[in-house]
Amino acid sequence: MNKESNIYTFTFAIIMVLVIGILLAVTSELLQPRKKQNKNDKKMMDILSAINIDASRENAQEQYDTYISSSSIIDNKGSILQGDAFKIDVLFQYRDKTLLPEERRYPLFKANKDGEEYFIVPMVGSGLWGPIWGFVALENDYNTIYGAAFDHKTETPGLGAEINQDFFEQPFVGKKIIDNKGMFVSIDVQKGGADRSDPHAVDGITGGTITSDGVTDMLKNTLMIYNKYFSSLGKAEIKKDTLAIINNNID
Predict the structure, then answer these.
(1) How many whole angstroms separate alpha carbon 157 and alpha carbon 211?
(2) What phi and psi, each to the nearest 5 degrees, are found at residue 58?
(3) In Å, how far are 46, 99, 156, 160, 166 from 129, measured between CA atoms?
(4) Are 122 and 47 in contact (CB under 8 A)?
(5) pLDDT in tens for each of the 251 residues of the chain?
(6) Residues 6+ apart with CB under 8 A from 153
(7) What are phi and psi of 192, to 5 degrees?
(8) DSSP H stretches of helix in 4-131
(9) Other beta carbons less than 10 A from residue 220's beta carbon
(10) Which residues contact 67 (CB under 8 A, 6 or more apart)?
């Protein structure tokens, strides 16, 4: 074949495209287990960050097994469902606009740290330029925030992107999602500065109003679902305590 001809050039180009395409496809397939493991490691690190455990990719599985004692899945009514909570991708659900509210699944992770029990809630919402997400850990009163970790991919640097910084996350610690009347109120991220004595409010990010509002909505919309489940746990505990008192009186 004449190497100077157009036919040779086109044939060579087609062959090279096919060879490179096959090589890329094979490489991608071979790397799938590693990519999956990296994704799982990152997820475990994010979950643990809500209880202030600074895990790495090297020890993520070990730390996860140490601190996470169990997990559950609930529906939008707060009822327990069967399945593996770790496999639930809340970000994927957020992006699937065809998914009905009753079809959404909400994973919940129970952690034990220093002899105390915590409930870790994953969440996702809308920022200025795209999704924002986070993990909030509640103490075993199902009310007090023990830790919070937020993140994003596309928020504005120096403004909304600051939601993953300590100065924004730390003020959530100790805040309450239930008021003194027993009503669910969540946490309000307030523009212009929140009253530090307010147990249900934290400061927003200066110049990041839309992202701050997104965090507020994300917290309210997500914690409202989990609160239905926590309320059922609280009622079960009250019933259990009442039965214990009755039995003691009978004895």
Answers:
(1) 12
(2) -70, -35
(3) 22, 22, 8, 10, 22
(4) yes
(5) 556 677 777 887 888 888 888 888 887 777 677 778 889 999 999 999 999 999 999 999 999 999 999 999 999 999 999 999 999 999 999 999 899 989 999 999 999 999 999 999 999 999 999 999 999 999 999 999 999 999 998 898 888 899 999 999 999 999 999 999 999 999 999 987 788 889 999 999 988 899 999 999 999 999 999 999 999 886 545 444 433 433 454 45
(6) 130, 131
(7) 85, 5
(8) 6-49, 60-67, 90-95
(9) 17
(10) 48, 51, 53, 111, 112, 113
Q: Where are the domains of the chain?
A: 67-250
For the chain, the residue count is 251
Place of tokens 């060879």: 19
Token pair recorded at residue 228: 């239905």
Neighbours of 146 (CB within 10 A): 21
Helix-then-strand count for the chain, H and E = 5, 8
Identify residue 214 by its one-letter amino acid code. Answer: G
Nearest to 91 by CA among 162, 147, 42, 148: 42
